[in-house]
Amino acid sequence: MSDTLPSLILRRRPGHSLERPFYTDDAVYRADLDMIFARHWIFVGQEPDVPQPGDVMALHIGEAPVLILRDDDGGVRAFHNVCRHRGAQLVPEGKGGVGNLVCRYHTWTYGLDGKLLFADHMGDGFEAACHGLKPVALRSVAGLLFVCLADDPPTDFDDMAAVMEPYLRPHALAETKIARQIDLVEQGNWKLTMENNRECYHCAGCHPELTVPLFAYGFGFAPGQMDEAELAQATRYDELVRGSHARWEQQGLPSRLVDRLTGRATGFRTERLPLDQAGESHTTDTRAACRRLLGQLTDAKLGGLSFWTQPNSWHHFMGDHAVTFCALPLDTDRTLLRTTWLVHKDAVEGVDYDPTNLTAVWEATNRQDADLVAIAQAGVRSPAYEPGPYSPHTEGLVEQFCEWYLERMAAGLRG
Amino acid sequence: MSDTLPSLILRRRPGHSLERPFYTDDAVYRADLDMIFARHWIFVGQEPDVPQPGDVMALHIGEAPVLILRDDDGGVRAFHNVCRHRGAQLVPEGKGGVGNLVCRYHTWTYGLDGKLLFADHMGDGFEAACHGLKPVALRSVAGLLFVCLADDPPTDFDDMAAVMEPYLRPHALAETKIARQIDLVEQGNWKLTMENNRECYHCAGCHPELTVPLFAYGFGFAPGQMDEAELAQATRYDELVRGSHARWEQQGLPSRLVDRLTGRATGFRTERLPLDQAGESHTTDTRAACRRLLGQLTDAKLGGLSFWTQPNSWHHFMGDHAVTFCALPLDTDRTLLRTTWLVHKDAVEGVDYDPTNLTAVWEATNRQDADLVAIAQAGVRSPAYEPGPYSPHTEGLVEQFCEWYLERMAAGLRG
Amino acid sequence: MSDTLPSLILRRRPGHSLERPFYTDDAVYRADLDMIFARHWIFVGQEPDVPQPGDVMALHIGEAPVLILRDDDGGVRAFHNVCRHRGAQLVPEGKGGVGNLVCRYHTWTYGLDGKLLFADHMGDGFEAACHGLKPVALRSVAGLLFVCLADDPPTDFDDMAAVMEPYLRPHALAETKIARQIDLVEQGNWKLTMENNRECYHCAGCHPELTVPLFAYGFGFAPGQMDEAELAQATRYDELVRGSHARWEQQGLPSRLVDRLTGRATGFRTERLPLDQAGESHTTDTRAACRRLLGQLTDAKLGGLSFWTQPNSWHHFMGDHAVTFCALPLDTDRTLLRTTWLVHKDAVEGVDYDPTNLTAVWEATNRQDADLVAIAQAGVRSPAYEPGPYSPHTEGLVEQFCEWYLERMAAGLRG
């Protein structure tokens, strides 16, 4: 790039989309992998991805192959998915079950704790104890799994965990199973995927399915452009939110907004919000898609608890199911979006839930979003593109995503 | 590249093909986009591409998405195809019809004059007047459309327009319609596509269809290698050209050679040349492919008026139809060639013309040329490739293309 | 790359695999093409690839298209496959037969000796004698063809030729024909393909077919890890090798180890080794796959004469057939492996040999190796990969490959 990264960061115009190189330049992309994805807590999945001891899941965080497994004691661990002999990728991408981790190349064998158990022909001077798998920091927040590739992960994760566990606990993620998991490759830089997630300004025009359960007044609006009838509706929506919060918190369900998206390494935000009509779920009829509710819940009408994390995830927890979203960069202009639908582990497919109904809203919404990310990437490639203004009423969280990103890049450049 | 662009330009050996980095180096390619395609008049199509108000055509000039449209007053305009909000590509690649230009992302809406008409939720401080589409300079020469991405387009375009309009006017391009338009991706640098167009040294061996209407003696030849019979034929060809020019100019059709390919930003060349046999058209039987002649023409035997422009187009106007060629760089080693066949707008397909017959010669010739460009690209990638000599008798226009290119790159480097 | 090539070379830890950039960095790859593949003797095929005058074979050494042909006098020659006019690739990739070499572009015509015989329209000043094809140095060692792109090829090739000709002569490669030739693209850096070839530590676990004819004790082993029974077997294997060598050398077949892999430009190694069971060939039943033996051989039980060259080949010569392997880099992370099975030229397919039986062991082994190279490439891309230790007992030749490579890169950097 002709401009240096520090100068690009310094001259950023607040309240406006980022300059072209942030979305298109390979050097910025490599810096993103190094300073964002290798130094922060990255959402990678949930405990039900590896339900049993010996279950293993392999994925890439940027160029780093990582494996997540459940060990013999039932704990979840993460390791670099790289044999310590000649560097072969140990476990193939995807999921499987193993006794030990055996490299196919020269049969070096590691225990589920990462210890090197066997390496033939290495001679007397070889120290097996120095050649265990390299561990990757892993934390579970009420069943949501985050890893950090850095040796010294950000410590403010504890704070997020402390805040979020009471919100998430009633949905009992550890007691769920994966009903569906779908990978989608978006043709855009990972930041466009995230920015697209951080506003619903586009929802009215682009997401006919999602706007059935979601209230339009929850997306933000410019009050100056509204007539009295609209203002009255907006006021009623605010009252509905306040009333719902009060009711749910009385039921023991933390619901009020917590917004710590910026000014810290581990940015996050959460709030439980009412849904329209039946008010139960992100479905085309707004009713629960699964008869067996999550955990010990008995009331299906709990709205949706949303949980957003910087830099790469968002989640919606309803009474009957949860949906999690994990965005992982594949290249400067390609991003993997993995969506996971979770239901109670005792729910029976075809009896308690119809997976087509369960996934209909977000499958459609994801396809629509992928299309939007692609046209965004196509346009920002233009030399004529210049950062445009965010709506102060509907794109505040996009601005907060950009602020957090630039803060963390600046921190990374300081070393 | 290990050599700098200025040193590559300075050490170029006249009369020889360019050095390897000009065809293979990504940094030279980016410089080509910046100094050639973003600063000169680029042929992009013709008025019949957008015949009606609201018709829009989107294409890329290098990395810049551009849209061409016909506005409500019947004028043709060009804009950067990039929403001023968050940069989404506004109109999809290809052709369509619109009332206004509505961005699919957040429904920002622009008029056909580029003005921002609607942007929801932007609040009170937002100035719509500052967020219209960015215009791109556009000029029509007797219906041929050229755009320039620069803020200060080369002014010698006027001169080309003044020369060319009398030549082109009798063919009444504005009164034509598109009979066929075919895109072909050539596997070579755009300069190899252009160099291939600028000589017919290869025609005898490679283009069996094209050499039916074209006279071999029009391709140039080395007189020292010819016997007396051949020299006599060459002399007869010269006489035919002179006689034809005299006859056509008497009919009010400017025909004589104008060659201003070098020494200026807007290089061009034109000449009307006789065709062999029936002498009417670029068809396999040399007869008109369309019964309805262009404009008010009544004589089909008008040979072919050729018009070449630097850096990216060539055109042939016959009595019955016209063919235009637009070359656009896609990557260091890939080039889009768009070929358009135009007939009188009242001509009826299947009655006045058979599109297979109309396009047969150039469809075959384009395929053959794409193959030649591919082997040229494959060979110049070799570290052992060194620039070879152009034939002084048949490759003079290739040399003029290279001269123009190097002049303009040098001018670009001067700033 | 953030580290310079010299610093990467200097800090290499002996006995360990190479650092990540050697396998993944595009700049190192280009240096490999320049300093290894353009300056050393590269194995490209064998005389039976071009059996008759006018036979021509075109391939790429890195970015350099090269053609190998048999001239009218029966000699084998190599040229850069690039027309001296405008650089078109002269002969398409693959094999064919020609009278002269005619460029399709403008019909420039070269003799099989590379002389320019015809170039139309070039005018009086043109000197055809200065525009012959650029020759490439070519040497045949008992029918194995090596080319060197450098102007001053390493002279220690003579020494390799002198050593190897007595070993290879009894297999009479010039009297063979190609029974099968298969190209396979491995998804890894060329050095991973070579390193994989230079050890059989992985054979026990990965190559069920190859380990039928090969003795496990020939792969190396850590004596400290073996019990008495195993040590006794290893001793018996050593005795078998010594006894076989004595017998074969008495038959006039040089067999003893020559190891000159490092400390020289043209590194190589050879040894004839006994095979298990019937001991005749690399087949699934260890018996000769071709009834007609090579050359004048009458004894099928000759084990396998292996011949390894730096940087890109290995070969196995049995009594009944030979297999040659040529590795050519396609990109930083892609390598072409061409495998050729050769039998006596008078052997009749379907009568003397069944090609499925002939190729079964190495077709399976190549597929398995391609998979191993792919997982090696996938793992070394990880930022967490660090060079691991080679087994001193089984990976000595891998270490010698790396030593040679680094010696030659250092020599290249010195100029």
Question: What's a concise summary of this model?
Answer:
The structure is a homotrimer of 415-residue chains. Chain A has 415 residues and is of the alpha+beta class.
How does the SSE layout of this entry go?
Three copies of one chain form a homotrimer.
Chain A: H1 5-10, H2 20-24, H3 26-37, E1 42-46, E2 55-61, E3 64-70, E4 76-80, E5 94-97, E6 101-102, E7 109-110, E8 116-118, E9 135-141, E10 144-148, H4 157-168, E11 176-186, H5 190-197, H6 203-206, H7 228-250, E12 258-260, E13 268-273, E14 304-309, E15 313-317, E16 322-331, E17 334-344, H8 355-380, H9 396-414
Antiparallel strand pairs in A: 1-10, 2-3, 2-5, 3-4, 4-9, 6-7, 7-8, 9-10, 11-17, 12-13, 13-14, 14-15, 15-16, 16-17
Helix pairs in contact in A: 3-9, 5-8, 5-9
Overall description:
- Chain A folds into 2 domains: 112 residues, Rieske [2Fe-2S] iron-sulphur domain (Rieske Iron-sulfur Protein, 3-layer Sandwich), CATH 2.102.10.10; 252 residues, Naphthalene 1,2-dioxygenase Alpha Subunit, Chain A, domain 1 (Alpha-Beta Complex), CATH 3.90.380.10.
- Chain A is 28% helix and 24% strand.
- Chain A is built from 9 helices and 17 strands.
- In chain A, the strands form 3 sheets. In chain A, strands 1-10-9-4-3-2-5 form a 7-stranded antiparallel sheet. In chain A, strands 11-17-16-15-14-13-12 form a 7-stranded antiparallel sheet, with helices on both faces. Chain A has a 3-stranded antiparallel sheet with strand order 6-7-8, with no helix packed on it.
- In chain A, β14 and β15 form a beta hairpin.
- The mean pLDDT of chain A is 97.
- Chains in contact: A-B, A-C, B-C.
- Chains A and B meet through α6 and α8 of A and loops of B.
